[in-house]
């Protein structure tokens, strides 16, 4: 669980941060960056010991190739292109070997009359993000040969531990100037640390208070789909909506934590989410969701394929290819390919619709966009094509509104004793006599209000309000940190304290789950 483990939060991270800030304050900039690079590599080795040698080989190899590309004179463009293609091919080959070998082997095996192997070995931690990061670096240095960087700077750029697991994907021009700026004298570290703690607290709240409980709603439903069980329409919609909100709060929570941890060092990572469920079109959605990833797809796949410069048919083919490859990047499964194909189709329809100049009311466009995104997330979550087909039948209502199993348990859950975590709280109201008598029946309203079903409804309502109408973390933090105003005001400290307290309570009541995007 990395960022939310007690060892990391209360021992490892404070030690790394304090030593870094002391070295920086003492004007020992190279030592501070060296300490940061060493700490990042050791943390990666702690999280995934078996993959640490691969990280070091990749680090050294890509830096060497980048330097060779930089040294090639502009007149020898073909030689520069050969080195660039070599670097991209090596990176993609490593990614394909560790992440897609079993997937493609299972496509070929039936053709050769061999049985399939359904137990792929786990991929190295963060290999997809590391691959994209280093490919982007090689492309950037091939375009900007005036760039010169030391191995120390490059090591921090690649291994910086807040972003190494799941992004955001940073580019050379975003990160290197900040490393240079760390050489400047630091008059006060309070603003950056205070801002970092604030953003981290928001991310922790999203993860523990919202994402993990939503996961406990979605997982059993998708588990029944995986087991071959047909579920009712209501269950299906509850499952996909729970996963839709879970995925957003899990990944945006991770991003907030990464940005907060980095900000305390004086490094600003790029924004990765901008209220995506408030989008009014699929095009708008991809400008708001996982921004660094969608930007990477645009710059390194869609535009090189030709973008919209080679006619309408080619544009839509490029959209479909880009999104299918983006789906496959998430995992070696046909369900991810279908998810990517759905979004490629959505984007094509969206672009064609724009050509008609017909404008829909905002509430219709937002609602339709959200439903399309939710349906695609269902395919993203299921673990097989067969499970996806069962989900589609259930969403369409072909399996009834509720399964018999759900029908029998739902009414009982509403009126049963409250959720175990609230037994003591409920007993206080019982002792005070808060009861409604209906003939020979006695109903305690607090039992209903604190039942599992009602708590789930509160959870969905909170997630929906924050997703559809709430401000983004970035906009809220910017509104709080006005120039010249102190960062640690009593009001702001109270808000941060309540977020951290709610996250602590949630971590006790609900076992924290692993970050969803760790697998990608």
State the domain count.
3
**Neighbour order of strands in the largest sheet:** 1-2
Order of helices and strands: HHHHHHHHHHHHHHHHHHEEHHHH
The oligomeric status of these chains comes to: single chain
Characterize the main sheet.
2 strands, antiparallel
Our estimate of the beta-strand percent is under 5%
**Helix content range of the residues, please?**
over 70%
Class based on secondary structure composition and strand pairing: mainly alpha
Keywords: Acyltransferase, Cell membrane, Membrane, Transferase, Transmembrane, Transmembrane helix
Family: Belongs to the membrane-bound acyltransferase family.
Pfam families: MBOAT
Main location: membrane
Describe the model:
Belongs to the membrane-bound acyltransferase family. Its EC number is 2.3.1.-. It is a multi-pass membrane protein. It is found in: Cell membrane. It holds the Pfam family MBOAT. With 520 residues, the protein is mostly helical. It has 3 domains: 2-110 and 121-185, no CATH class; 188-414 and 451-520, no CATH class; 417-448, no CATH class. It has 22 helices and 2 strands. The chain has helices spanning 6-25, 29-47, 52-71, 77-108, 127-143, 151-159, 161-164, 172-181, 190-226, 233-264, 282-288, 291-302, 312-330, 334-356, 362-381, 385-395, 404-415, 423-431, 445-449, 452-469, 473-480, 490-509; strands at 436-438, 441-443. Strands 1-2 form a two-stranded antiparallel ribbon. Helix 2 (29-47) crosses helix 6 (151-159) and helix 13 (312-330) packs antiparallel against helix 14. The longest helix has 37 residues, at 190-226. The protein starts with 5 loop residues before the first helix and ends in an 11-residue tail after the last helix. 36% of the residues are buried.
């Amino acid at each position: 669980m990395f960022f939310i483990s007690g060892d990391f939060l209360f021992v490892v991270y404070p030690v790394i941060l304090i030593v870094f800030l002391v070295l920086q304050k003492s004007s020992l900039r190279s030592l501070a960056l060296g300490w940061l690079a060493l700490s990042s590599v050791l943390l990666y080795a702690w999280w995934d010991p078996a993959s640490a040698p691969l990280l070091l080989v990749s680090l050294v190899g890509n830096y060497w190739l980048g330097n060779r590309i930089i040294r090639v004179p502009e007149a020898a463009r073909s030689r520069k292109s050969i080195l660039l293609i070599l670097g991209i091919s090596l990176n993609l080959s490593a990614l394909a070997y560790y992440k897609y070998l079993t997937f493609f082997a299972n496509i070929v095996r039936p053709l050769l009359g061999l049985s399939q192997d359904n137990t792929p070995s786990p991929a190295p931690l963060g290999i997809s993000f590391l691959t994209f990061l280093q490919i982007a670096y090689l492309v950037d240095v091939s375009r900007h040969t005036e760039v010169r960087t030391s191995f120390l700077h490059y090591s921090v750029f690649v291994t910086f531990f807040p972003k190494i697991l799941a992004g955001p994907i940073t580019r050379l021009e975003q990160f290197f100037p900040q490393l240079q700026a760390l050489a400047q004298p630091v008059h006060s570290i309070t603003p950056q640390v205070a801002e970092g703690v604030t953003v981290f607290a928001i991310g922790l709240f999203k993860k523990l208070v919202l994402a993990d409980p939503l996961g406990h709603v979605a997982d059993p439903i998708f588990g029944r789909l995986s087991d071959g069980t047909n579920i009712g329409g209501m269950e299906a919609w509850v499952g996909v909506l729970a996963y839709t909100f879970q995925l957003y709060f899990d990944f945006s929570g991770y991003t907030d934590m990464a940005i907060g941890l980095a900000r305390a060092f004086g490094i600003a990572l790029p924004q990765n989410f901008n209220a995506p469920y408030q989008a009014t079109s699929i095009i708008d959605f991809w400008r708001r969701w996982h921004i660094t990833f969608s930007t990477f797809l645009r710059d390194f796949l869609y535009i090189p394929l030709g973008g919209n410069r080679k006619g309408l048919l080619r544009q839509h083919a490029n959209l479909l290819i880009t999104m299918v490859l983006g789906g496959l990047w998430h995992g070696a499964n046909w369900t991810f390919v279908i998810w990517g194909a759905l979004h490629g189709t959505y984007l094509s329809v969206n672009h064609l619709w724009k050509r008609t100049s017909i404008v829909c009311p905002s509430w219709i466009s937002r609602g339709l966009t959200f439903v399309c995104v939710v349906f695609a997330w269902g395919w993203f979550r299921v673990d097989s094509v067969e499970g996806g087909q069962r989900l589609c039948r259930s969403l369409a209502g072909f399996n009834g509104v509720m399964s018999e199993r759900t029908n029998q348990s739902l009414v009982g859950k509403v009126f049963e004793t409250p959720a175990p975590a609230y037994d003591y709280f409920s007993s206080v109201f019982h002792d005070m006599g808060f009861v409604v008598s209906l003939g020979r029946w006695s109903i305690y309203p607090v039992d209903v209000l604190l039942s599992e079903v009602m708590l789930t409804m509160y959870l969905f309502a909170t997630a929906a309000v924050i997703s559809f109408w709430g401000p983004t973390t970035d906009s809220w933090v910017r509104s709080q940190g006005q120039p010249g105003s102190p960062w640690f005001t009593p009001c702001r400290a109270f808000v941060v304290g309540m977020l951290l307290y709610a996250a602590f309570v949630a971590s006790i009541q609900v076992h924290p789950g692993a970050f969803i995007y760790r697998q990608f």
